Amino acid sequence: MASATAPTTLSLLPTATSSSTSHIRSSLLHLSPTSSSSSCSISLRSSNIRRLGFSAADPLFAHGVASKVRSFGGKAVRGVVSMAKKSVGDLSAADLKGKKVFVRADLNVPLDDNQNITDDTRVRAAVPTIKHLIQNGAKVILSSHLGRPKGVTPKFSLAPLVPRLSELLGIQVVKADDVIGPEVEKLVASLPDGSVLLLENVRFYKEEEKNDPEFAKKLASLAELYVNDAFGTAHRAHASTEGVTKFLKPSVAGFLLQKELDYLVGAVSSPKRPFAAIVGGSKVSSKIGVIESLLEKVDILLLGGGMIFTFYKAQGLSVGSSLVEEDKLDLATTLIAKAKAKGVSLLLPTDVVIADKFAPDANSKIVPASGIPDGWMGLDIGPDSIKTFNDALDTTKTVIWNGPMGVFEFDKFAVGTESIAKKLAELSGKGVTTIIGGGDSVAAVEKVGVAAVMSHISTGGGASLELLEGKELPGVLALDEATPVPVSN
Ligand SMILES: Nc1ncnc2c1ncn2[C@@H]1O[C@H](COP(=O)(O)OP(=O)(O)O)[C@@H](O)[C@H]1O
Ligand SMILES: O=C(OP(=O)(O)O)[C@H](O)COP(=O)(O)O
């Protein structure tokens, strides 16, 4: 784990020359949370941050440094500023033995009509942190939401999670019928060391989503330490993800949360190059933030999905009845110009699979991007584009993918998306870092059966999108910072 890494200290002095500045900048980039999430500390002045070409909004700093830099305004910052969050791996066995630990996980899994879990990815992803805690003698009070219930709703109970959790953990998980209150307190008091109590769906209380401080305090009163491992919910400032940290110290990151940050912030901020991003999905409007943020970092940007037709139309091509956002035509033109100015190789599909209706049994044909007839709509990228994309991807060392290349829910229009999934699997096998940024791209990778070989598959759709946009996640910001290391200055 990161805590085993030797502590690293950088001093950014105001007198730094331009050559030392570039050295510091590259060292700093190298010291992403990936390489040293718990033991890297930096001494810096805000003037040097600017000189190094960083802005306080740089995602590299988003989860530690930036907030401090901002809070100091333009004034000199002296002393140690930690860039990472404290991890559950930083807590010693003595910190954990016999301690009641409130663990917020994201166990928001899909259930079928018979309340069977149809995809247990999030349950499996929560296991390493819980196992670590129980193996160190902690009493785990496990909390999650499921769905978006309005008040107590039996079909959103966490009861279906108990058998799978117990199986994966190798112990019988006890379930409470409530989230707070005397019955829950009684169950907590009776917990032996190394056990797990699963609380009921935390969203059964409306106070959860309101981040009500009184509710957060009641949650906190159940435990002595807080671990947030709910990456998929880290973009929500709710009582169990943010509010509770005000009442429980330490408040630390779980292993899953750390891994997500390592890849979606660390690997993206200091990628092995060439670095490519593949962005697809339905609309430009939902991916503007991601595209703009990635344009700052990538060498190659491949665009697919429904959004390409807005780019085509902006370039004067006919798009038939394809999905187009008329109010985003100027934006598409701006993004193309921005890519050019930044030297990013932006590839739009050169051919598309078109359909005569939006349906799985639609008639289809392949046409060049410039040849979409009236009444037809583009639902997938074509074979020439797949080849061009594959050739570009062959040159890369890091790839991040967010959003399908076509309407992959219909088999006839899933070829582009599935080809990308297969290509990334092949590249992963050759040592390329492959990151799947949540949402439908994860479903595509799973459909093709190549999920296991990817470097990282995010468990959060919305959360990963916000991270890739360079936003700060409230559930992460609220956690304690990693212990600072004294700076030699
Ligand atoms: N050419 C297209 N026309 C219409 N919809 C498309 C097209 N290509 C992809 N889509 C749709 O985009 C949806 C995913 O979009 P989005 O939610 O933005 O991606 P993600 O979930 O990966 O973030 C899928 O349901 C897919 O069917
Ligand atoms: O499934 C989730 O988000 P996602 O669908 O964006 O991956 C999380 O559990 C967050 O759920 P929410 O969007 O109801 O807050």
UniProtKB/TrEMBL annotation:
Pathways per UniProt: Carbohydrate biosynthesis; Calvin cycle
Single GO BP term: reductive pentose-phosphate cycle
Claim: Magnesium is one of the keywords in the record: yes
Subcellular location: Plastid, Chloroplast
Cofactor names: Mg(2+)
Reaction it catalyzes: (2R)-3-phosphoglycerate + ATP = (2R)-3-phospho-glyceroyl phosphate + ADP
Top EC class of this enzyme: transferase
Record-linked HAMAP family: Phosphoglyc_kinase (MF_00145)
Family: Belongs to the phosphoglycerate kinase family.
Protein name, per record: phosphoglycerate kinase
Source species: Carya illinoinensis
